[in-house]
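Risk register update: the risk of archive-format incompatibility is retired. Evidence:
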Amino acid sequence: MTTEKFFSTLAEVENKTRWEEVAPFQISMSPISNNCGSINAIEKRQYEITCDGVAYEIPQGFENSIFYRAQIYGQALQIMPPEYVADVVNSALSFRPRNERYKMLIRGGKCFAVHSSKYSPLSQERIYTISAQYLEDIFDGKLCFGEYTDALTVATFETESPKLLQIYKDAFQKVGRELTFKKFEVEIVTSDVTVSGANVYLYGISENGARLPFGEISTKHIGGNNLKMFTEKLDEIFPLLQKKADDMAELADLELAYPCNVLLQLFKKLKFGKKISTKIHNAYSTFQGENADTAMNVYLEICSYVYELKGNGASPMQIIDAESKISSITAKDFKNMDLPGVFAWEA
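Archived output:
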């Protein structure tokens, strides 16, 4: 979406959103359709929730928040017929404390979630407005991509902060390397039915265009979370990006005697899919042979896993999860896995 379209969409969503405080015994769940002739039909079940005589359709997949309020967990509900599920949930809700309160999110005439009273919703429109202003003021950042869905909203800002770029240049020069980062990206992601806290994901974009995950900053949904606390979380962006300069320089300076073994073991450690991992490992092994390599080059190969995921149609959350795992790798991991021998995929 364009910047204008992105923010106008969020404003429209905000106007269609309201929160209602309810007690457990004030709400009841029922199936819209009892068609359970097959497993596929069960997986496509639909429900509605009634509160004070008004019925609200629950979009498919969003019924889980109501299951959690009833303190029903696990996979059993995934195969139960809808009418059984509704009976179990309603029975469980009837036993909840009489003074307990829930926050029910209604948007466009549908119920997207039922949260606990401790949940602290934030305006999604305000989250992104504050983020855009902060990144523009501090990093000369600009929105380069924005997308809204019911399940996940993503805004990617890019910055070519001269100060940060110089920090990275200095860090690599200290170890005698010339790898250059040309810009950085800050991705703000909100989920959990549109109104929530946010996660901040950081990336470095190398000179050849590789997008390297640098870590994440999370905000909470409970405990009095507010926009001031979210803004304070944004203040963690610069220190984290600054620290990553030294981390990347250390990888660039670390020579590995057995890089193919390191790559294989790191894929296993990260619990990445065998099919994609094997494809990347085989291609790298063919090119690299038995030659030594830097930890940075192996790290770049690991990052290519994300591109393969995208090409295979992975969901945004699957991609975010993979990036988070990659950003947690340290030079110590590379050193500990730089071992001779023959390693197999099986543990």
